[in-house]
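Bumping my old thread because nobody answered last time. Still need a sequence for this structure:
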């Protein structure tokens, strides 16, 4: 992959490659979410619970 990127000569080509990669990973994420939904691991109730979830990293001075 790095060798491929080293051959890119224009910003336009790099933008096209970035878009292709973004689309690919967005599609993979969508497939994974669809599988979770199909397997009943997530549903509307779970998504509603996520809205109220606070998963912040606590920073305590030591």
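Sorry it took so long. Here it is:
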């Amino acid at each position: 992959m790095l060798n491929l990127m080293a051959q890119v000569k224009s910003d336009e080509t790099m933008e096209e490659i970035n878009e292709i990669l973004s689309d690919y990973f967005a599609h993979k994420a969508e497939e994974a979410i669809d599988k979770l939904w199909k397997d009943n691991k997530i549903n509307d109730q779970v998504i509603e619970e996520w809205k109220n979830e606070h998963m912040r990293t606590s920073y305590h001075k030591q």
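The chain has three helices and no strands. Let me know if any region looks off to you.
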